[in-house]
Write a structure and sequence with these properties.
Helix content: 40-55%
Number of helices: 31
Strand content: 15-25%
Structural class: alpha/beta
Shape: elongated
Length: 877
């Protein structure tokens, strides 16, 4: 119901409430039974055990469980235990992610006011917030948290901090007068107060119109409970990859085993060879390598002041195409600052005024004395505008002690009708009235103006010039206040005494952009990301800030929430193509915009700090909350927390996300090429009706030596220097996009061919099967070691790669080679793995074949890059 459009009398009549007596206790209890408690509903979610065991229902996980069981049956307990450890860790991570959603709703419930002051049977009583019902008369004063949505009946200088709901940085002035327009944004409903917001100034009386789930806060909670969290691109691609790999590996292993039996080979040996090949070929190291790569990214981001709350969010951030960013506290400092001073048609920056300008002493004294701030130094508290005036006055070089001699004798408080405040103060130079307020109201009561030439009468031309100056500043998103003064005769002032004033100047205040914001926006643009400001603030204010930080470019538009309401989705999408700023928006608008971008194939990153941002933070592919100023709700709903509340930190997080995804491609390429080579060695031998080139235990050894440490080391490979000059990758692209699948097949074919050749050549020359198998195993391992080096780049040959840049990889290769050497030259291990010692000429053959294969693969890479460049040149002509 549009309570703001009804008169106070209509609302009271509708709710059957008395503004002087409130409800009686019996009626209040009846309404609690009717409307329920004033708390957000707590849904019954799945049990923790069910959440945990659901982590084992994924297809890839089930196959890996079977692989672990087979490893135990083959006597390879270490492999089986490693697989089980990996799956258990992943299960706990998934459990935490799902359990987090319930915590998000719990944080929202705790925002409800624990106590509320109401009228019951004509007496003022304090009751638990849960017992507030529609029709209760709320009593509000500075410092209160509003217990429920309510329609104002009285307001005396009442200002409410609504940033959590509306995104506006300034407290909203309240006025009980009705508004005729029904579909007003929350920020414009000046005669309403909302649950969870804070009273920062004045006092008021209101009648409760909505409680619990029917409040604006309750609607947000409902949206959060019904919105599904988007699955990340990495999760989708790995799920697809897992199914493909498992089916392919099992099919090929079964084919090889069956073909060997048909050829007359030992069925028992072929069965276990097929099983061993399946276990070796399925990259069980892939999940843990992905987890480690993401975890390393998390650590790097934490050092850069971005806390990751969900591991896959690292990769998702790296492929973000759109950032929907709030204004207040994200791009701006969420702190009003007195920046400009207007006098006699001239605008001066406060920072450029110099020390203690005597001609401005009276102006700064007025700003200092006509003020209700409390506290000292950095601990000063009060209305953000008054704090800015207070700090600006002291920052102009005047000592606080000089004005401390002035004692406040009386005041005419600010109210939303007069839009000004007057303070009567007594000082060494006598009594005076100091006035600040909206320019139109103050200027109309000025009879003189003080300038460089002294005091002179105000003319109509002077008034028009002052008001035009105020209008020009307001157009640039400044909040403009007029400062005035008059000598006083020593009696308490009244409203009628705010006349015969001397105009001193205009103070222009703004919530300034963060110094790093412009550079961060420019870097996002260079990286191909689109940045949109999405705020509940006024269009002019939002546009000015957006223009200042570089979001709003020439030719781009500001789109208001009211316009969005009148458009269907397709019409809104057309508008969004040219929009850079979305102003006066509600939580539903944010959800709608996020959904639209996602429907068009974009990966959406949403930044925010308020309760109003929480549903969109949860829905978006990557939710980024402010760690310092953000509400608990936003933090719980988000995937990333910025500990410095700095938009610029996002740029570093995006870079790290891209690095992580690049590294995932590197070790996926390495693992699958290596496994392809292993399969081709076995398949080629069976097709040629040759003896098996590797025993089951040797296949598992190759898998152990090559799949583990080198893949993990590729997961921490340093970033490519041009990573932030690339456009975002297509969020729909598969893991094998951009020719990766072809690279894997070619490299796997080369690894398989050289290893099989080493086996067949040795077998032909020596007729020593055990020696041939040992040499095939060594060639296969060395080929994969070389591949670990060339997998670091998709566009460079092995000679263009600097191995020392990744010392982790060099160490991993050294450890893996040591294990391989031990299984050949240590008799107990050699007997287990069926290997024999190799002579230097055997090592030379293995090195020549594996190194030659690396050079051949590098030549293919260079030809591939050359073809890309020719195609790009042809397109550019």
């Amino acid at each position: 119901m549009s309570w703001h459009s009804k008169s106070s009398a209509e609302v009271l009549r509708e709710l059957k409430s008395d503004p002087r007596r409130g409800l009686d206790e019996r009626e209040a209890r009846r309404r609690v039974r009717r409307y329920g408690p004033n708390s957000l509903p707590k849904g019954k979610g799945p049990s923790p055990w069910r959440i945990f065991f659901s982590q084992f229902s994924d297809f890839m996980v089930l196959v890996l469980l079977a692989a672990a069981l087979l490893s135990f049956l083959l006597g390879e307990g270490a492999d089986g235990l490693a697989i089980m450890a990996i799956l258990t860790v992943n299960a706990f991570l998934g459990f935490y992610q799902e359990y987090r959603a319930e915590r998000s709703l719990e944080a929202l419930r705790e925002l409800a006011s624990p106590r509320a002051r109401v009228l019951r049977q004509g007496r003022e009583v304090e009751i638990p917030g849960e017992e507030v019902v529609p029709g209760d008369i709320l009593l509000l004063e500075a410092g209160d948290r509003v217990a429920a949505d309510a329609r104002l009946l009285e307001a005396f200088s009442l200002e409410v901090e609504e940033a959590l709901l509306t995104g506006e940085s300034l407290p909203a002035g309240k006025d009980p007068a009705p508004f005729l327009q029904e579909n007003l944004p929350l920020g414009d409903r000046k005669n309403m107060v909302f649950q969870g917001t804070f009273v920062v100034k004045g006092r008021g009386k209101a009648v409760v119109v909505a409680t619990g789930p029917r409040t604006e806060m309750g609607r947000i909670a409902e949206m959060m409970s019904t919105e599904e969290e988007a699955q990340t691109p990495l999760q989708v691609r790995l799920s697809q990859l897992g199914r493909i790999l498992v089916v392919a590996c099992l099919s090929i292993a079964a084919f090889i085993a069956a073909l060997g039996v048909i050829q007359g080979k030992d069925p028992y040996l072929m069965f276990f060879s097929g099983v061993s090949l399946a276990v070796a070929a399925i990259p069980e190291g892939l999940p843990i390598t992905v987890t480690v790569a993401l975890a390393i990214g998390v650590q790097r981001m934490a050092r850069a002041r971005a806390i990751i709350r969900r591991l896959p969010a690292v990769e998702t951030l790296g492929c973000a195409t759109v950032i929907l960013t709030d204004k207040t506290g994200t791009l701006t400092r969420n702190e009003m600052e007195w920046r400009l001073l207007w006098r006699e048609g001239k605008v001066e920056e406060l920072t450029a005024l110099g020390e203690r300008r005597e001609d401005l002493e009276l102006l700064f004294r007025t700003a200092f004395l006509c003020n209700d701030v409390r506290g000292e130094g950095e601990g000063v508290r009060g209305d953000p505008t008054e704090v800015a005036l207070w700090k600006g006055a002291l920052g102009a070089g005047w000592a606080k002690e000089r004005w401390s001699a002035y004692r406040r004798m009386g005041e005419v408080p600010f109210d939303s009708h007069r839009k000004r405040m007057t303070v009567w103060a007594r000082g060494p130079d006598g009594d005076a009235l100091y006035v600040k307020g909206a320019p139109e109201g103050v200027v109309a009561r000025c009879r003189w103006v003080m300038g460089e030439g002294g005091i002179r009468p105000v003319t109509e031309e002077t008034r028009r010039a002052i008001l035009k100056g105020a209008e020009d500043l307001a157009r640039e998103a400044y909040r403009v206040l007029a400062l005035a003064f008059r000598p006083w005769e020593g009696r308490p002032p009244a409203e009628d005494d705010e006349d015969q004033l001397i105009f001193l100047g205009l103070a222009a205040l703004k919530d300034p952009p963060r110094p790093e914001a412009s550079r961060a926006v420019a870097q996002c643009r260079q990286a191909g990301l689109r940045v949109l400001m999405v705020t509940g603030d006024h269009g002019l204010t939002a546009a000015a800030i957006a223009r200042e930080v570089g979001i709003l470019q020439p030719g781009q538009q500001v789109l208001l929430g009211e316009e969005m309401d009148s458009l269907e989705d397709e019409g809104l999408w057309e508008k969004l193509k040219d929009a850079a700023v979305l102003a006066r928006v509600s939580p539903l608008h944010k959800l709608r915009v996020a959904r639209l971008f996602q429907a068009k194939g974009h990966v959406v990153a949403m930044t925010g700090d308020g309760v109003n941002d929480a549903p969109a933070l949860k829905l978006s592919d990557i939710g980024i909350a402010m760690g310092k100023t953000g509400s608990d709700v936003a933090k719980e709903a988000a995937d990333v927390l910025l500990t410095d509340d700095n938009f610029a930190t996002i740029v570093g997080a995006i870079r790290e996300g891209r690095v992580v995804y690049d590294n995932i491609r590197k070790f996926v390429r390495y693992l699958l090429s290596s496994n392809t080579g292993e399969i081709l060695v076995m398949l080629g031998a069976v097709l040629l009706n040759a003896p098996l080139p590797l025993l089951p235990v040797q296949m598992l050894l190759v898998n152990l030596v090559t799949d583990g440490l080198p893949a993990l080391a590729l997961g921490v490979d340093p970033a490519d220097p041009g990573i932030m000059r690339r456009p975002p990758r297509d969020p729909k692209e598969g893991i094998f996009a951009r020719g990766l699948g072809r690279l894997i097949l070619v490299r796997g074919f080369i690894i398989g061919c050289v290893s099989l050749y080493a086996f067949l050549l040795t077998l032909t020359l020596t007729h020593h099967v055990q020696l041939a198998r040992t040499l095939a195993m060594v060639t296969l391992c060395l080929s994969q070691f070389f591949h670990a080096l060339d997998a670091r780049s998709e566009i460079k040959g092995i000679w263009g790669i600097r191995p020392w840049e990744n010392r982790h990889l060099l160490l991993a290769l050294a450890v893996s080679f040591s294990v391989l050497w031990a299984t050949i030259y240590l008799p107990p291990l050699a007997s287990i793995f069926g290997s024999v010692p190799l002579l230097p000429e055997h090592w030379m053959l293995a090195l020549t074949l594996s190194g030659g294969g690396a050079l051949l693969a590098s030549l293919y890479t260079l030809v591939r890059v050359a073809r890309w460049k020719v195609a790009a040149w042809a397109r550019g002509r």
